[in-house]
Amino acid sequence: MLRKALTATALMITVALPAHLTASELRVGFTLDALTLDPGNHRNRDTETIIRNIYDGLLTRDSKMKVVPELAESWTQVDPVTYDFRIRSGVIFHDGSLMTADDIVFTFERLTKDGALGGQTSPRKDLVGPVASITRVDDRTVRFTLKEPWPILPAMLPVQEVISKAFAEKVGSQGLATQANGTGPFKLVEWRKGDTVIMERHDAYYGGATDISPVGKACVDRVIFRAIPENASRVAALLAGEVDIINELPPYDMKKVEANGNTRVMKVNGTRTFFVALNNGKKPFDDPRVRKAANMAIDKALIIDRILLGTAAPLNGVMSPDAFGFNPDLPAYKFDVEAAKKLLAEAGYPNGVDVTLDAEGPFKDVVGAIAAMLTKAGIRAKVNVSEASTLQAKWAATGEKTGDMWFTSWGNGSLDPADIFVPTLRSGGRGNRAFYSNKEVDGLLDSANVELDQAKRADLYKKAQAIVNSEAPWIFMWLPQDLYGVSKRVSGWEPSADSRINSSRYLREVIGPAS
Amino acid sequence: MNPLALVGRIAQLLPVLLGVSVIVFVMMALTPGDPVEIMLSGQQVTPEQVQAMRHDMGLDRPPLERFAVFLGNALTGDFGLSFFHRRPVVDVIAERLPATIELTLAALLIAIAISIPLGVAAAVHKNRLLDRLAAVGSLFGISLPGFWFGIILIILFAVHMQVLPVSGRMDYACEVAPFTRLMTIDSLLRGRPDCLADALSHLILPALTLALPMAAVLTRVQRAAMLEVLRSDYIVFAQAKGISRRRVLWRHALKNALVPTVTVAAIETGSLLGGNMVVETVFGWPGLGRLVVESIFVRNYPLVQAAVLFYAVTYVFLNFFADLLYTMLNPRVRL
Fold first, then answer.
1. Which residue of A has its CA nearest to B198?
2. Which residues have C-beta within 8 Å of that of residue A186, sequence separation ≥ 6?
3. Interchain contact, B286 vs A431, CB within 8 Å
């Protein structure tokens, strides 16, 4: 009765709702709104996921994360520091103008030159690497010259989007923050800040990367990204049929989404490596035996199964199994409490050690389990939950290095070791939270950085991974999977490891009528 | 009203604003964490770029100098660029403010509509069933965590009955040219009843979630004030003169009994404007509260400083507004 009355009341309010679900459209419930629409003026992956539907890049990645040409037709590496990109012809911006080599040069100069953003420097500058110059060779060719070899340039280009020179000069950097004129499959209709980004199909689209089928215009008329930051509300919006795809589905809601007849869960390996950084510069973790004992004390499989509900892949090293140069032969530290205690005693700690385990609030559960397991093996860990920025300050490479252990992570969007191995484990790396330093590893990483032969480069990283595995500067943890909730209305869409939601791809003729 | 009172109030504002600026600045400066580190964490970056960004954000200057620059610019209405949006702070705040105002006004209206009649009724029927129910209801309303209540409303009305939307401010199919930027008012002004209904359907759940705790407080205040007034001599006198009970209640008693309610409502409105981040997050409401909380987490200093100053100004003016209302309710009160 009460329910009926409530329904009736609410119906009266909603009776005049607009009938908007006629055109084929894809509605994404997203954790965040875009910070800006300027592809050159942010360092935020969620922002990029949204604007990558409006702007295309020189290169992109296929669903297997292989780098393929997009606005470029092909590329060649002339010598260790020179790359030539052949540009597609006939690519049209949303305002109808033709994309030229000048637009490419302008885009990348804007990213790499100091003060090019109305006096400020692009926060994305270093994502383009040590660029010396970007020049137009001819109408269809742009040359990147680097100051030093940087083998991951092609792996990093998919995260840069090409803008129109004429448009940027007209509206300025302030204008680019809220207006868009890209070459991508969708053009901007309206941005309701903090709320919704509305896009519609770009009918003059050139078709996208030739290596990713199917090639052609987007199959949906419109794409809407709605910011729904709260997990429970985002899941509710999916279950209520208000959105078709949600990102960051919380693992504990997987059952609910699967139980609903109209929705399902989709998983993909992420690119973020989780680990416990051990302070290698300070007792007790300056002793490799203690670090190994810590690795043996953890029943990783149990944590993944019970707390993460099976949504992570265990790691024995730093790299994702999908990454370039992954070493599949690294031995796992077997869960063995007695062996861990023995190692600890050998290292001179027969009565165990007392340490602090730092972590951020969201990881409380996981860290509680880790601490309990460590304590059982004699590494009595006290959990200290704190905010990310506080912990970053405590563990800064330039800081006092007073911590013992930190449950943390490092993202590797490029899926190239140069983007994770070097910063987190090379001596003095800015993300070297464990303060690990090994001359041999440094040497291998440095050689790999300038090696042009990709097979040799992979071998160097594999060797370095083996050393790191045996010295255990971290407790190796896992690679979480990204979880998406997807309406059954959508078929053919696959989540991808770079967490993009490419609304053009994989959605050809697959959107059914809205429920 | 004495026009000098207004001038006096504005003069009072200056030390308040200065004090608030100092406190916010010191608190943000003392909080560990660095916006550049947060922005670049886990990604490719060289120390040179970190340095360049710190310079662009003005973080390479000593704190005292930063504060002086901030104050100097603030006097001219320039609050700098938001570190993360990379646009003027004033623009970013102005984009989000109307949503918060609309939600606050709606919540205030609902709260007043519930609390004043209920408070009066509870006072009149003191210790009887209605009064007891109102007391239990108020206790319930005060104790309800907004977060939990919001989620329950969503599950009930949006997921199970599917009669109200889960989140957002207005359907994307509705495009109403902005005028006041309050979606309900604009839809009305532009003659779009469909959009008005849509805006209301988005507004009702978050407004209700915000309004209930406020209504609970106001009901208690209204009841207490009413009881006190009803005991006073002039009410007894009015009744003795034979004026109808209804007239005594609504004309004679309520006017005086509203004074404390207005005070509390003004304070509550101030905290609603600044403190509804939880509700804004649950309902994906694109308001200021959510923006400020997100900004605190990423140490977006310029935005937080400007927003807190704005809150301080609002608070002072809301209290002034409450004082003005007193003089209307009770002419013996002078400003």
1. A17
2. A53, A54, A199, A200, A201, A202, A218, A222, A223, A503, A504
3. no
